Amino acid sequence: MALFQKKKCDFCGMLHSQSEKVVEGLDALHSWAEKADERERERVKEIEREADELRRILIEELNQTFVTPFDREDIFSLSRAIDD
Fold first, then answer.
1. Distances from the Cα of 15 to the Cαs of 18, 59, 61, in angstroms?
2. What's the pLDDT score for residue 70?
3. Cβ partners under 8 Å of residue 24, min gap 6
4. pLDDT given at position 6
5. Phi, psi (deg, nearest 5) at residue 76
6. Tally of CB atoms within 10 A around 80
7. What is the pTM of this model?
8. Phi/psi at 31 (nearest 5 deg)?
9. What are the mean pLDDT values of the chain's consecutive 10-residue runs (84 residues total)?
10. d(C-alpha 72, C-alpha 52), whole Å
């Protein structure tokens, strides 16, 4: 029955994507600190928006998933720590 079909959600992959976005943001921040270029500052802000969207998607999926691969509170806490 399709009603109870298991929905696949890769929380580990989503957390990994968040982590990659943090590294990208740190690289952009470092570049901006060195160059003090307006384009670099805008890039930092853009990456922050992208990171916020990744977190929003993860939280939405977390709220819609009945069974998670590990404790949902741990997933939430990891995502928040990465975002901070």
1. 5, 11, 12
2. 83
3. 47
4. 57
5. -60, -45
6. 12
7. 0.82
8. -60, -40
9. 60 94 95 90 95 95 87 93 91
10. 19
CA torsion sign, 65 to 69 to 72 to 75?
negative
Question: Torsions phi, psi of 6, nearest 5?
Answer: -70, 130
Q: What is the DSSP string of 23-65?
A: HHHHHHHHHHHHH--HHHHHHHHHHHHHHHHHHHHHHHHHHH-
Structural tokens at position 55: 């977190």
Query: Which pLDDT score is estimated for 7?
Result: 61
CA dist 60 → 39, 41, 49, 55, 79 (Å) = 32, 29, 16, 9, 12
Q: Look-up: residue for tokens 């270029």?
A: 37
Q: Answer whether 32's CB lies under 8 Å from 41's CB.
A: yes
Closest to 50 measured CA to CA, from 26, 21, 13: 21
